[in-house]
Amino acid sequence: MNSKAAEAYILDQLSRELPPSLHYHGLHHTLDVTEAAMRLAGAEGITDPAALCLLRTAAFYHDAGFLVTYQNHEVAGCQLTREMLPQFGYAPESVEVICALIMATQSPQTPTTLLEQILCDADLDYLGRDDFPSIAQALFEEWQDRQLIDTEENWNRIQVRFLENHHYWTRTARQWRHARKQEHLRQLREQLSLPPN
Length: 197
Known about the structure:
Layout: H1 3-17, H2 27-43, H3 49-61, H4 73-84, H5 92-104, H6 114-123, H7 132-145, H8 152-165, H9 171-191
Helix pairs in contact: 1-3, 2-3, 2-6, 3-5, 3-6, 4-5, 5-6, 8-9
């Protein structure tokens, strides 16, 4: 399979075709998730080149569904991978693994394999990073553009619920990101005058 060509194809599509109103789910997010997935895979001891290739392809394609739709973009992304990846020499079983990886990132996340756990953690890596406030702001603006949220206070309440219910799946992500994520949650609760949890 020609993974480099498959990656180049989707990067070109994302850079040219994604709506500019995707402040969060833009090309930058795909690149960020791919980098995080590869970093996590290394720390989790994934060394098999075939497994790493499938993970990397899934990371590049995990939000490709936004080329077609905003709602249920994971399903659309799977459809796209089934159409496109065979043209780059991906076997049907490899395409199905990639689809399972993409679908695992759907909220609420449901990973069943280590590769799926890695991609899920990579997709929400920012929750436990220092750039959380600016990335969260980009998602707020994206939702505002689609009339999915009204006020910043309501947005912060949604974020509090999300952070309270989220957990990282891999040992590495928990070590790297959990403590900082809890600090972001504490700050949001403080902003909303909520008691410490």
